[in-house]
Amino acid sequence: MTGRSFSSMPIELKPFQSLNGIQQLAETRRFKAWFLDQFGVLHDGKLPYPGAISTLEKLATYGTKMVIISNSSRRASTTIEKLRSLGFDTSLFVGAITSGELTHEHLLRRDDPWFARLGRSCIHMTWNDRGAISLEGLGLQVVDNVEEAEFIMAHGTEALGLPSGAALPMKLDDLEKILEQCVAKKIPMVVANPDFVTVEARALRVMPGTLAATYEKLGGEVKWMGKPGEIIYKSAMEMVGVDAADCIAVGDSLHHDIKGANAAGISSAFITGGVHATELGLGKFGETADDSSVQALASKYEAYPTYVLPSFTW
Question: In sequence order, which residues have a C-beta less than 8 Å from that of residue 173 and are 6 or more positions away?
Fold first, then answer.
C-alpha cells in the first residue's frame, strides 16, 4: 500500500520500528510537528495516562510544534478545556483540530459543493450521559420525524435530539431502526466523529462511526469528517506551516490515526495500549506488544505505522 502526501509525492511504507519511549524519537529532532490524538494516547477520558503530562513538557523543550487532532464530536475549544481540566498545560499546543470543529465549519460556511446541497432539517443523533451537542448558530432545524428530515447529523450514539432542544435517551438498536427509515427516504448522513469505539476509563465506548458504518451497509450515503480523511491532517499542517515530510502523527487507532497518516503521506507512531490493547493481548498499561501481533493487526486494517510504542511516555 502506498500513501500520498498533499504534494502527491509517494511515501514508502517500510517495516515499523519498535521503540520504548518518545525520548528516542524526540532526540532525532527529525519531526518539527507532532499531531497528537487525545483519547487512548494522552488520557482515557477520565484521567491522564501515567507520564503523559511530563512527556509533553519534555517534548516541548525540543521546539516541537504540537497539535491535537481528534475525532471528537465537540468543538476544538471544548477539547482544549477538557485537556486543561485533566491537568495538561494547554499552552504547549499550537492548537486543536477536531472532527466536530470541521463539521461545524462546513455546515456553517457551506462553501463545499456537497454541504451546499445539504438541507436545513435534520435527524440529530447525539449524546446523553456525555452531554448533548448544540447545533446553535448553524441555522438547522432538528426534527424527530424522518419524513421531515433532509439529512442525519451524527454527533453521538446515546440519544435522539428533539425539536425542543432536549435529548431523548435511546439505545443503539433503536437509533439503528431510525437509520433504516432514513435509508428508505434516501437522505445523507454527516458523521462528526468517525471513530468506531474509543477508550473511556479503561473501557471501550461505541462512537458515531459505528452508526455511520451501519448506515453505509444499509445503502446510505455518509460524509465522514475527521480521521482517516486527509482534511484533518491538511488543516493541521496549515496550522503549523510544516510540510508532510517533517510531521508525525501519534495515535492508538490503526483504522483512523495510522491509516489517515498513511493517506496524508506523513510518518506515524502507533500506541498499542489504546483501542487495540485487547486485540494485541495486552492486559496492563505500558505492556509491550509482540511485534508479530502488531504486524498481523496492521495488515488486517491495511494501516502501517512507522514506529510502535506501548504508551506515550518518555
Answer: none
| Residue 209: closest CA among 60, 308, 223 | 223
Q: What is the pLDDT of residues 236-282, one digit of tens each?
A: 999 999 999 999 999 999 999 999 999 999 999 999 999 999 999 99
User: Quick one: which of 70, 115, 60 has its CA closest to 93?
Assistant: 60
> Which has the closest alpha carbon to 88: 130, 35, 33, 51?
51
Instruction: Give pLDDT tens digits for 149-163.
Output: 999 999 999 999 999
What Rg value do the Cα atoms of the chain yield, rounded?
19
Identity of the residue numbered 277:
A
Rounded Cα–Cα distance for residues 78 and 76 (Å):
5
- Omega into 194 within 30° of 0, i.e. cis? no
Give me 258's grid cell.
Answer: 495510522
Q: How many Å apart are CA 58 and CA 64, to the nearest integer?
A: 10
Instruction: Return the amino acid letter for 227.
Output: K
Q: How far apart are CA 310 and CA 293, in angstroms?
A: 13
DSSP letters for 111-150? -SHHHHT--SEEEEEE-STT-PPP-TTS--EE-S-GGG-S
